[in-house]
Amino acid sequence: MNCIPETECYVLDGGSLLHRLPWKKGDTYNAIAESYAYFTVRHYGQATVSFDGYEDGPSIKDNTHQDEEKT
């Protein structure tokens, strides 16, 4: 193997993305979805956006959530 091709694969946290873009009062669901799609494609090209939920109890993202609370 002389060369390993470079690949980019982005997986975005949908919850974090929701906080990144402001919603305009009165926007339709379609307008909001299009603005998120446009933002994602413009900044990341082809990406996977994951929306996940959390059960009660410890989570793999507990440290991230604590850091967000400090800011």
Discrete helix count = 3
Question: What's the story with the biggest beta sheet?
Answer: 2 strands, parallel
What value does the average pLDDT take?
Answer: 81
Count the strands?
2
Please report which band the strand proportion falls in: under 5%, 5-15%, 15-25%, 25-35%, 35-45% or over 45%: 5-15%
Listing every helix as H and every strand as E from the N terminus to the C terminus, the arrangement reads EHHEH
Task: Classify the oligomer.
Answer: single chain
Q: In terms of per-residue confidence, which ranges show pLDDT below 50 for 5 or more consecutive residues?
A: none
C-alpha Rg (nearest Å): 16 Å
Structural class: alpha+beta
Instruction: Give the distance, in angstroms, between the N- and C-terminal Cα atoms.
Output: 46 Å
Helix content: 40-55%
Assign an overall shape.
Answer: flat
The largest beta-sheet arranges its strands as 1-2
Write a structural description:
This protein is of the alpha+beta class and 71 residues long. It has a domain at 10-54. The chain contains 3 helices and 2 strands, in the order βααβα. It has helices at residues 14-20, 29-44, 62-70; strands spanning 10-13, 47-50. Strands 1-2 form a two-stranded parallel sheet. The longest helix has 16 residues, at 29-44. The protein is flat, with a radius of gyration of 16 Å.
